[in-house]
User: Fold these one by one.
Assistant:
Number 1:
Amino acid sequence: MKKIIITSLFLFAGLYLLAQPVPAEDENIPYLMTFGPKAETSWGDDDFSQTFFFVIPEEHTSPIFIRVFDPDVGGEIDEINGFWDTKISYSIYGGTGAFENEDAKGIDPVGEYRSGNMLATKVFGENPRYDNNWYTFGPFNPTEGELVKKYGGYIFKMICEGVEGDDGNMYRYFVSTSPTQNIRIEGANAFAYEYSFRMHNDPNEVSHIYPYIDDRTISVEQKNFDWDSDGMIRVVSVARQGLLCKASGDDVWAQNQFKILDEEIGTSLDFQFIKRKNPPVKNNNVVISVKNQYGELLPFYTIPIGGVPTYKYSIGVKKKND
Amino acid sequence: MKKIKHIGFFILLLGFFLPLKAQDYSISQLPFNTDKYDEFAPVYFRGDLVFCSNRKNSIFLTFLDEREDLPLYDLYRVEEGRNEWGKPEVFDKAFKSNFNVGPASFNSTGSEIYFTRNININKKIGNSIDRHNNLGIYFSKFSRYRGGWSQPTPFKYNSPDYSVAHPSLSEDGQSLYFVSDMEGGYGGTDIYVCKLEGSNWGQPQNLGPQINTEENEFFPFIHSSGRLYFSSDGHEGLGRLDIFYSEKINGEWHKPIGMDPPVNSRYNDFGLIIDAFQKSGLYSSDRSRMSDDIYSFAPLYPMFENINKMQENDHCYVFYEEGAQSLDSTTFEYQWVFSDGTKINGEEVEHCFESEGDYTIELNVIDEITGDVYFNQATYQLTIENIEQVYINAPDTVMVGQEVKFDGRQTNLKDFEIARYYWDFGDGRKTGGIEATHIYTAPGSYIVQLGVVSKPDRQGNSEKQGVYKNIVVIGQGKDRRRSD
């Protein structure tokens, strides 16, 4: 199960943020990805479910809309497996437990992961009307979400799941103040505990995700699925020039642990997905999650807390003969 | 036939301006000089001084130069007292004649004299421009038994066809240096040497083109160390006649080195003698522009205490990316760009800068995975200063006979305005100036010292700083200077 949250970030770095497309520009991820439940996991989706959390700042009182781009399964963008026979559901939850329920914060669609009040749901099959087009959920009163003081706002949960078939659904979200346009919400953000997404076909494109490292984090374990050995995964931070992580092959998991540096506390890591140049791999889908030393999942913020982490080079000089 | 211009030098050359150089000697005009007459070519004699002069020595009879209406030259002796000089007297009546009697040289005990005189003394009088009365060298021996000097004996190589003059006898009495315009020289007057073969002087040997030039060389003085001092207007100097010295290395004379100012000047400077330690001495000059006078000189070499060994300026540094974690397993290539124009690729690089100064170092990063190049990811401003010390810029190892340049320009002393530089080459020779040239004549390890003295403060106090440096002189090989 994949979960994404949109959250206000007043509790974090005091950044002036706007709600944004999911995936966001800095992530350079073309599409989120969810397959029909009959697809082989070797297509890249380990559990045919993805959860996002959106948090609307408490101060925001006007209606919001959750828009989905290309929600259907068919057409140019999605990935066909034989013929189009897949149905995908989008369900939006709010109210008590939508986020705070522990099952909601997991990476697998088990237990009460559909916790909270279902505010809206819709199933899409092959539907040219929404192919390469937007579908809008809402309006929602921000207070319909679950108020979580830690995040400074109301949390809405969006679960995208494969219902039937074996095709791949490629889509994006946008939390907007308008039902027909993508208008950002000031102070909002989004995060997920597990990310399932489609890679670029262009080998020169590098995708990013940005897990946030809180002060409880001593070490982390990254775990990725079905990377198809398509290049490498590199971690960059404000203090880390580039740590290569284990990347998975086809239909398998790969993971490794590494220690967190003091300078990385309170910042985001930049997981870079760098495709190999030759031979190029197309339509590659990957799943990734990051846990701390307690096994707690770390959120991937679509707007990285503290900004996109950039390693700060520093020149050291010493006398040759010292 | 070339003629020696004789013992009075009235060469009227246009003066020219000279670059200023540190005054490394104190000079003093001796008090017995006269304004009207010449005094020159002093030699040591039994604790006294013998010199040439055309001063009037009698109110009744003085032979005059026909052309200039001046008395002829004679040898005079003056007593050097503890604090003052005595009154010059005619050296000895035995040598007095109605002709010019000129520069002399004594053996080490003062019992033998070689002196210059007109050859033909049968003429009524002689003068310096008499083309038919050349100069010759004469020898006389002092006899305690007789209580006087013997009748002068002409030098074997005196000739009516050329002049032979300005004798200088080596301390061991085995070599007689002199000047002559005899045929076969390099031009003007040359310096020759005769070796004593039994009781006779061997054939004159020209000292060769390293010493003799197309112009004139005069007044040789062979020091007990073997160093030859002489005057020349053919070697590069400060103007007109200057005083030079040279020594034999591997049997050959090295390139003559001029004496520093104020001994040498843009006027005629000649007839130098120097003490056994080659520190102080006497010489002649017409810089007063009235007549030739005798000057004394002494080195102005102060004592330098607390001399430290010089440290070499190290402008070599190692550059690295100081934030890189060892756990990083990815590969980035670094390109280091130095403002002196150097570019070096590498994770950790070494670079030596030519000199002190301000430099900028930029780090370009090449992502070997993506191929992206990130320019100027970090910048470092590096200021390199020389060690605060007196600095001797000179090679560590040199060859015997090699002309070695010593340079003190890289001295870096804060709040210390240098007034004078003092070099001690460790072989007993010293000089001054911000730079100096020296030739070692024997192999060995030498300690070269450079001391500097600051300009005096308002109270007139000066500070001194100094360093020393070891220099190894290798004896093998030829005179490299000559082979260059």
Number 2:
Amino acid sequence: MSEITAEGGGVPEKKTFEHQVGHHFADAENEFTANKFGFWLFLATEILLFGGLFVAYVVFRTTYPMTFHEAHEHLSKTMGAINTVVLICSSFTMAMAVRASQTNQQRRLVWLLAVTILCAFIFLVIKFFEYKAKIEHGYLPGYWYTPHLPTDPANGNIFFGLYFVMTGLHGVHVLGGIVAITWVLVKARKGQFSSEWYTPVELVGMYWHLVDLIWIYLFPLFYLIG
Amino acid sequence: MSHDTAHGHPTEGRKHHPHVLPVRMYLSVWIGLLVLTVITVKVSYFNFGVMNLVVAMGVATLKATLVVLFFMHLKYDEKFNAIIFAGSLTFLTIFFVLTLADTMERGKVDPVEAHELVPVPARPELSDRKTVHVQEKSPTEPGAHGLTQPATGESLATPTPADSAAMRGATAPGESTKAPGGH
């Protein structure tokens, strides 16, 4: 393995790990492209998973436009916008983390991953307070939809049902992202990544960008133009 | 530089050489995404009617394109991966088009089915709001269009002419909301 060009003052002396190319691959490049190909297939299924919910959103929105308009004003644009910025920043730090792994900047890789995880937690904390307010208003979906104020939106269970399911599924993906990025962080601290092999950083990065991508659509659909 | 696999055959051959992109590019995309976020939030305070949706979705798609092409490196990736991504979007489009071709065009052929999906009955106890009540139908009753209504009369319901008559006048309290917990 090539010695580490510690651009960011890495931890080369700790690096004893050497990635073995799977025996079913011709070479490292073959392995990398195959891994990425497989991951794009997975991302395609993710798009279709959320796609079904987006179709449901459009069907109900075109059927109940006034309900959506009335109910969406009960969401905080400010909190949604802050969360959008938080996710975009975390996507940026993740992209920079992938670049750090490509250029053997071990220390920078670790702290960029840590910042990404921090952003993910900030996102979930803000989401928690949003959910808390909605639940206190009795806006949980379906059977649990129990609003108690005259100003509560009529038929809001349709809107808030979609809101909770779609942002909830997205939130689960954020949680999964935290787990995955933490796993990469642990491996990065052990100095397992180098410019020759950084596949987990790259793939988890792609996953994280997809989570950002979904939110890029959820934010305007629920908070801005409901 | 080369290393052997566990099976002992040599892996001379292509090593992976990362395609490192300049930091400047990542910074520009990041700032671009933030600027577009500010734009879409500011724009949402103005009402352009139908254009609200177009503008918001246009900005979102622009942001999504930036993320996919540059953060996810699809611009520099194998073309086949782009085909997979485009393929998922293609099937998503088919999903959208075929579904909406049904739900948005109902009643254009047969006026008998021209009923829109009616709103869920509002809570009758809130007298300051115009409330509608959808009379429940047994699934076997003619005119139910084969749709069985949910027991609580909530969510999707396809009304019959009799329902429409009921909706015009009645605000019957009762089974419309059976949610737990007091109001």
Number 3:
Amino acid sequence: MKYLRALWIPFQILTYVLMLIALYAIFIYAPVEKTMGVVQKIFYIHVPAAFLAYLAFFITFIASILYLYFRDSKWDTVAYCAVETGVIFCSIVLITGPIWAKPVWNVWWTWDPRLTTTLILWFTYVAYLMLRRAVKDNRRANFAAAFGIIGFINVPITFFSIRLWRTIHPVIITSRGLNMSDPMKLSLIITFIAFCFLYCSVLISRIKLEQSKMRIAEINGIMDDMYFNKIA
Amino acid sequence: MKFVHKLGVIIWKDFISEFRTKEMILSMCLFSFLVLIIFNFAFGLSSNLDRGMIAGILWVAFVFSGLTGLGRSFSMEHDRGTLPGLILCPVSPWTIFLAKLIGVFLFTTVMEIFTIFLFSVLYNTSVLPFLSPLGLITFLGTLGFTAIGTIFSAISATAKARNVLLSILFFPISVPVIIAAVKATDLILNGKSFQMIFPWLKILIAFDLIFLLVSYLTFEYIMEE
Amino acid sequence: MPRSKRKQSGVLPQLNSEHYIEARGLTKKFGYKTALRDVDIYLKEGDSLALFGPNGAGKSTMIQVLGSLMQPTSGRVRIAGYETRRDRQALRQIIGLIGHQTFLYPQLTAYENLKFYGAMYNVSRVNDRISEVLDIVALSDYRNDAVENFSRGMQQRLSIGRAIIHDPSIMFLDEPFTGLDQQSREDFIKLILQFRDQGKTVIMASHHLHLGLELCNQAAILKTGKIVYQSEVDRIPESDFQQIYEQQIGEKVLPLKVA
């Protein structure tokens, strides 16, 4: 365990470095796309963020199952922090998407299956956060874990149902695929890796923060006990 | 089979309680009546209805008033302090879940029949030619949303702001059911072939099975403290 | 608290199999408030334990955890060979719990309430048993009246009926005398003595020192979640016990007059 602790600071430094490289890649290295122009560069942020949002909620799914199985509150903390960070990245997706869409397709929003599923995903995990706020201690972790499992299982079903729905209403916009030149592909890979590191850094920081908060509350609880009961 | 017997007893208990007060069924039916009326004002609908809207209106009425019934399912037990009494009994949590589900499902079905009838009257549209396919879709869709509604009712019964929480938890998860049920109902009422309806049917059945399974696995954790 | 003690899962405390009711290291926390700390209880079959303590000491919590309504945060409980984490359904079959809440359904009649619980507890020949129970709690005349029309005392009596309908071998009583009038209280005392004669194990939380010591053969004083004193009732005269109680708790004990 101590080795992992020692690696934390180098890991964060590495994250900073990678993000700087990614910024360079996005703004300087990657060529400007012919038809869409500069706005296409949002793509380098949008795609990794989307992947990481889904990954975050997958982490929540697994952590929820592990919590219910092992009853270790550590897993509940992981699930909770993964949801918070996931909601942030999901918000990034939902904001960068329309920013890209407006100049390129001339609409802010489409009811495209992927975008809509991501929106529902966002709602689901905001609901998870509301659930945690509304329920008190002992039951909270259990309920949140159950909802984390239900929410994630719902994602593929939602996606398929929306996709089926969309085939009946013809879509203005067809595929999102781009023909990417090699520098673009490389930029995407660099950004992708940088964002993965960023996500891990953010998640681990958040978990450490949450654990510190819990420790402080625990100590406060003990001190309250001692004060009121004069227990040595 | 002890399990079936206990299931029946819990359902019987809920039915008698409801029968004596008629609280749930009355409020559900009144609410769906209200929804039908409001749709008229909101969308400026005339008595000759735009065919495309029927399915949507029906399902909005079903789901929203279904939610009022679902909310009561566990919150009543919690308010009267009988929930610990139920937990104390040697019965598996899933039996409690199923009993509550069946109870709410039946009440919701009564409300839906009433709603369809009322709808036919208010909007001069008959659904009789389509009764059996409509019945099937309504059955599967209702089963889906009452299943997840029951889980969330148990979760939100002990929370603050329980009705709001129930709605917030419910809607993102119920999206597939609502899409599939509305679409399928729409196709049925427009006389489309079974071939076209089938994919939606598959989604509804998949949803129902998956969430019944998930409830089986997780409900015991929801019941304990 | 050292880091090693923070881990909740891990090695469970050892249990000695000869005890009927056994709790080791029982801890129950609500968030960071500790209701029970590291409580140990050992009872043989047929024992009866009186739990005393001021409000907020954790008596109700202890009864609820032992009675399987709640799970302990840490520690281990074994009752009649059943572990409370694993064998919950089997355990609940042999437990009866009477508490502040009556667990009765207001719109249902006395008969229907008992029929419900009878069925849930796998009681055979339910109708006969219901009549029997209604006799015991003196509510036969009110068999077909809705519980919402009962007085508090009547509801409490019916709740007693609900708790005994399946003839459990272990009774948990959480301040059961509140809300009972004089006659009902006497009847219930007789009932508890009957439980003792039948060899049932009883755990009773009460404010009434005298009654508790009369009815039980073990006594414990709970203060802020810890057992601060425990003894067999026969070993110590009541006035001494009263003194110890006042010393530990710092409250004067109110005498209870039972005619």
Number 4:
Amino acid sequence: MEKQIHIEPVTRIEGHAKITVFLDDAGDVKDTQFHVTELRGFEKFCEGRTLWEMPGLTARICGICPVSHILASAKACDAILSVRIPKSAEMLRRLMNLGQYVQSHALSFFYLSAPDFLLGWDHDPATRNVVGLVQANPDLARKGIRLRAFGQEVISRLGGKRIHPSWAVPGGVNSSLDVEDQKWFLEQLPEAKDTIRETIDLFKTSFDCEARDVLGEFQSMYMGLVAPGGVWEHYDGLIRIVSQEGEIVEEGYDPSRYFEIIHEASEPWTYLKFPHYVPKGYPEGMYRVGPLGRVNVAERFGTPEADAELEAFRTTVSRCSGKVFDYHYTRLLEILASLERMEQLLNDERILDPRVRAEAGINELEGVGIHEAPRGTLIHHYKVDENGIIEKANFIVSTGHNNLAMNRAVNGIAKTYISKGNVTEGILNRIEGGIRAYDPCLSCSVHAVGQMPIQLDIVDADGALQQTLTKE
Amino acid sequence: MSKVKVATMWFSGCAGCHMSLLDIDEVLIDLAGRIEFCNSPVTDLKVFPEDGVDVTLIEGAVANEEHLHLVKEARAKSKILISMGDCAVTGNVPGLRNGLSPDKMIEDIYGKDTTTNGELPYDVVPHLLDRVRPVHEVVPVEYFLHGCPPPAGVIAKAILALLDGKEPELVGEDLKFG
């Protein structure tokens, strides 16, 4: 008899979602679906509003990575203004994005995911969370909290507040860097670096290559922006897509023409669309973005400590890792790289230049803003009228790019851990973990948000509900 | 002294209020000793405890059928309900879709003109309500925390006051929208 298992809502990820596992007559996994259950409709209600509002308004797509949307939006607006923003403005936008990487990756690692693998996948769900981590390992938890706080403080000191700072604007940013803040950031960096060094060491000694198979491994393409020479990039650059073997699939692709190689599909059972690589079609054109995607497409980080760690990582896997768990590993490497990049920027006196904004009117009627958000490539695409009123807006968010891959990850884990209808809470948590590794920001994905809590329904072949399991 | 049970929920919003809650940073460590975090997007507990909770903080507006069901459950299971942030308090950004037809919106976003295959999401996913509503339009609410998001300090102030059995004193800047 065919059965279905539903997990809802999936918790400790940033958004509303649930999972259905379809079992066959023998109780083995036949299929799985990862559902995103909210839609807010930003594409539609942005229509008719002015270009100038877009960074502030679209920041509200996501409270976890508002800076990502503020920057992608500001870049799309720069394109419509047809300006090249001042050097200091670009450096400051980069600095804020790096602060965002630190806070967002630290949140994902310490608050949301570490409870699974530092406390244990089968740990009591009542304390398998950040508070449990605080009680079990207060030193590490405190350091993790301070690391995230540092990233948030960078955003706050630059933009006036931690969440939804109205700071990046069409043409640049609206305030320059204060010397006192520059000094403070530089003073804080050593502690942040120590924390991430220690965490990377802990991670490496806790999880060898084999242990990192826990969430499965599969082949896909990878996408990300790279700087000249294939160097890791987070703010600008050109699109590169590589195969699982690390062979170039697309190189130097102009991001403003993304729509020629990336289309979106939709399914009746989720609000999250499925971006795919056009030449391979849907659903074969699956690719992954985010920390693992960026690290897999890049030749190197371009900073000494991160490059040394990258080399150590690559000796444990082939050129491109396909392990889902390595999202956590690469996320830690990116925190280190981000801190090194911040240091470089802060030691460059050009960052203090008070000329931070290019003024212009509407000079193009269409603009694409693209950059690497913590969770992957983020695209804002606007069409406006002569007065700068939005006629059409499209957003392809980082988590969306990973939708096919998240479905694939869930499928693989379900098949590994469920057989003959035998399901335990720890197994369910591993399935969720497969999703959590991508650190999906479902607020973004459906330009909606919500909680990801879990319920499991078992339904027979006739569609009748046989049993419901919930995590309590 | 038994710990105070706190739940948090997340409807139509951006997670920013929950992030602001986490932005209390190290205060979180102190709170861990006095609070029992129950169902919340940041824990693995997905349903209310049988005997309910003392306080539920709600982020986001009521925008779909599931929220409507959950907000009523939250009211029934909580001694104190707090609307956390402008979306819960006023509808705010999610409310900007009021006036647009949900079906038209879905057709425009997922239909054949936009996607490869034009499948419209109407299965499994909760259906959108015709109009997005603030929480207190659906159930009574005891306290309101303004802001997009409310600053971490305001959230901490409210929680700490309630823990001491006092009325939160929110004045001046604490009451700012946006």
